[in-house]
Amino acid sequence: MQNLSPRHVKTEEASRLGVISGWYSTKVSGTFVSGPHDSETDCLRKIAEINPPPVPVKKRVA
What we know:
This protein has one domain. Helices cover 29% and strands 26% of the residues. It contains 2 helices and 3 strands.
């Protein structure tokens, strides 16, 4: 399971990095995983697709 977070890259930084300005999902290390996305909401939606929450395990009743 990856710990991904949304990050906005502004135009100035985007030019320096050679990417398009927008929202990116990033690893803790700062590596871009997906993007650019139009909004933080779109980015969070993609993070949820890539890294879905764990499914709770049902306990058996003896």
